[in-house]
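Handoff note, outgoing to incoming analyst
You'll be picking up this chain. Sequence as last confirmed:
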Amino acid sequence: MATATRQGSAAIDGRTLEIGATRDRELLRKFLEGDRLRAAHAICDLEEREFARSKWGIATRSTETVAVVLEYGGLTPQPLFVMGDGDAIATILRDVIRPRLVYLAADESLLPAVERVYRVDPGPQMVRMWVNRQMFKPVLGPAVRLSPVDIVDVNRLYGLGFSGWLPAEAIGHGVYYGVRVAGRLIAAAGTHVISPEGKLAAVGNVMTHVDFRGRGFAKLTTSSVTQELLRTCDEVVLNVRADNPPAIAAYRALGYRDHCLFEERLAHRRGAPWDSILAHLGRLIVRNKEPA
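Most recent structure output, in case you need it:
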């Protein structure tokens, strides 16, 4: 079993904090399971296929894990998830996990800690919702399971074109359902991640063509995906903007319940070249405003 690689220590409030990178999945799982619905995406990223694409930072105090930071690799902005003690998170971000541009997922209470290292843009507050077999209330309709051969239609629906970011393997490895009208794909829903080991999954990529909205197709496709996932998962989660009451109502009608509020924000590492450019421009503006 891989253990944390010691990278340094810091004294916070007189207590020694050990920080480092880790590949110890059991250590990470034990901490994340403390709030498995909040940490659902991170738990799913412990699966072998996703774990290979991730970097993990951890902070311990007297052998107790107090914070975890996950960076998921790929094109920028890279997803970044933080959970735990704010001071410990700031230290991990300063010394261990150091991407330049990230798409942050964090509790609102942790934003001040992240902002010690990153400049965080404004963004929407999100609701994490969840459902299990007992709570689920499916709806019936003409949704069909999608396969990798549908990738062109899926990306066209998402407005991404033929060379969109969603690869065919995403449909092959996930669960996607869609609705067609006269052969045209007009609504779809799918998954972000699935964890057979954790018995968790995250619904995502819910989209209805603008000409067909307001007819319940998003609710139908989400129901179909959720029903399939609950065959093997104990819980299914999804994210929705807090300022989207119709979507929240639709998911609640399927049995989903609110779990927590959190923030999704674009964040730029302080001290990166762009920050230096902005600071220089700011100084020029101030200088030009000074009287001659």
